[in-house]
């Protein structure tokens, strides 16, 4: 099996190194990752300017490429480069992200978007995250990723993206794994103003996650809040099927 691994924290991040090391025990791993930090890039792609690709050494990878594009670019161009070298990618893994990708945050996430790009390329894909921007505990995240490769591959189709999130705790301190659905991910957010010295004001986005009470425990955000890892199946089809017939009655066509 051939696996393409990418991320949004950059090719030198600790998370991708741990993921490649784990997956290389069960598959041939190829790395195509951003040359620098690209967090919260969403599903942006590069148009109107070139993408630079540099082959580099990466421990545990058969080949690795440092790419100046977005996480989605890395999957899109990575699969093409490997295909030209007669290497068929069987699965895409994105991560391990430093910071959770839960609920509505998945819409902003470069990590999840890279996995979705894999799905758009016709490849079953997995996004993996640890819920801390200073994460140090990758053990369970790696184990779940390897299990997704071993046990999920034959059952997944190209429309499926598994979104794995774990607490930043030693494996023995995590309460378990829950299979979940997306929830809301809200923040007590604000923009901190800062003068930049030339008469203009810069605004820096900051925020703290809202702590929820009384919500079902099958929501990914609640599972994480309660000390569990979560696995959520995602798809790129965002159609609201319950409204397809309803909107016909709105007579929007005049």
TrEMBL record:
Pfam families referenced in this protein's UniProt entry, alphabetically: SurE
Name used for this protein in its record: 5'-nucleotidase SurE
PANTHER family for this protein: 5'-NUCLEOTIDASE SURE, 5'_3'-NUCLEOTIDASE SURE
Residues spanning the membrane: none
Catalytic activity from the UniProt record: a ribonucleoside 5'-phosphate + H2O = a ribonucleoside + phosphate
Reported function: Nucleotidase that shows phosphatase activity on nucleoside 5'-monophosphates.
Gene3D superfamilies hit by this protein: Survival protein SurE-like phosphatase/nucleotidase
Co-factor binding comment: Binds 1 divalent metal cation per subunit.
Keyword Cytoplasm in annotation: yes
GO molecular function: 3'-nucleotidase activity; 5'-nucleotidase activity; exopolyphosphatase activity; metal ion binding; nucleotide binding
Class of this enzyme: hydrolase
Sequence ranges assigned to domain Survival protein SurE-like phosphatase/nucleotidase in this UniProt record: 3-189
Keywords assigned by UniProt, alphabetized: Cytoplasm, Hydrolase, Metal-binding, Nucleotide-binding
